[in-house]
Design brief:
This protein has 130 residues and is mostly helical. The protein has one domain. 75% of the residues lie in helices and 0% in strands. It has five helices and no strands. Helix 2 packs antiparallel against helix 3. The model has no long low-confidence stretch (mean pLDDT 79).
Length: 130
């Protein structure tokens, strides 16, 4: 069989095996396959959640809400695994309100993320459950 005609399941198995091998080669996931699988699942989860939070933050830019703080939250989640997220996070942090020590106030981040989650929850309820 040529590579173009392989069943999707075989292609996904090859991709999964390559991802496990890459995790093991970096050394950050430990030596066993179970540790590499766990690290890969955590990485995919962080990036996926970061993308969702980033999308909500982008939606909040024109809508009423703390868009930049939510975007920063999404970038923080992704910054550990995605190099461009680190660079974008620095740009977003320059635009956020700072506390006297120069950092983003925890209160700003907590209120922003909670506001975003409540907004999404109410929107979903309004759309699907009312």
């Amino acid at each position: 069989m040529t590579e173009e005609h392989e069943p999707l399941g075989e292609q996904l198995a090859e991709l999964y095996q390559a991802a496990i091998e890459a995790e093991q080669e970096t050394g950050s996931a430990g030596e066993t396959i179970e540790e590499a699988e766990r690290h890969l699942i955590l990485r995919v989860g962080r990036v996926s959640l970061g993308l969702v939070v980033l999308g909500v933050g982008l939606a909040l830019i024109p809508l009423p809400g703390p868009g930049l703080a939510v975007i920063a939250g999404g970038l923080v989640l992704m910054s550990r695994d995605v190099p461009f997220a680190r660079r974008w996070l620095e740009r977003v942090r320059d635009r956020l309100p700072e506390d006297p020590g120069g950092g983003v106030a925890v209160r700003v981040i907590v209120v922003s993320v909670m506001g975003a989650l409540i907004s999404v929850g109410v929107s979903l309820w309004w759309t699907f459950l009312r």
